[in-house]
Amino acid sequence: MRRELSDLFVNVGRVENLVEAKALTKHFGSFEAVRGIDVEVRRGEAFGFLGPNGAGKSSTMRMISCVSGRTGGDLKVLGMDPEREGPKIRARLGVVPQLDNLDTELTVRQNLQIYGRYFGMSRQRCREKADELLEFAQLADRADHEVEPLSGGMKRRLTIARSLVNDPELLLLDEPTTGLDPQARHLLWDRLFRLKQDGVTLIITTHYMDEAEQLCDRLVVMDGGRIAAEGSPSELIGRYSTREVLELRFRPGAEKPDLERFAERVEVLPDRLLLYTVDGEQTLATVHEHGVRPVQSLVRRSSLEDVFLRLTGRTLVD
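Below the sequence we write its predicted structure tokens.
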């Protein structure tokens, strides 16, 4: 796969920013789904869109994948305008939708071969490519099985394999591991990491913060159609959180002590306090010295989830 991608990059005009959006907007009637965002996705990186429901992630991905036109602003994908050169762009994209849309009446191999024909590939090339992708997705032993009985993880791997039939430069993945068990998620992470090593640029939307930390070189946090923050996972943690978090859990209904003076920031939750601090163990010792006795305590590293919740809030958005 690596050799084919290298040949492809030589044969097309090389664009270093595969996606460039400036003041990009998308309206549905009076509703503003995307409100003037600026985004650059560099060749060879894994770029993430994070945000709660209704943040504008899916609307942005649909504009990038050339299935939904923009309302305003500028957008270039692979150096081209989606409104004028949508078919050319789509020929060089791979798209993994949030819900698998495989043909369940066909075999695993047939799903790949028939999809290849949509891109004008010869029957021989479709057979060769299907064999290659079956190995990549670890589905060679299921090649002649029908799709319907496959597990969720197998179907997801097949959907990703199908998106690679045309050797895309840019792969768009919408919630790629939603609903999968931990083993299936980690296997998919490994496959996606291999793709990035092979030169495929990835754009990922995900609700899993650990997934974003594992896969994304850079990401944006979207909220209310705007970009609330941008950077690498480590940059965002350094900018919006502290090195460590001390969690103090109390009995239900117990009055929680005022510990603001012991941390850079304190978040009050129904059953516990979160103390954001440089040194969690030292903060815990200080809290104990002042007579605070929680039912349970935990010192942990700050994570991208802490950043996400600080920027977007803890209120459930439907």
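The first helix runs from residue 2 to 11.
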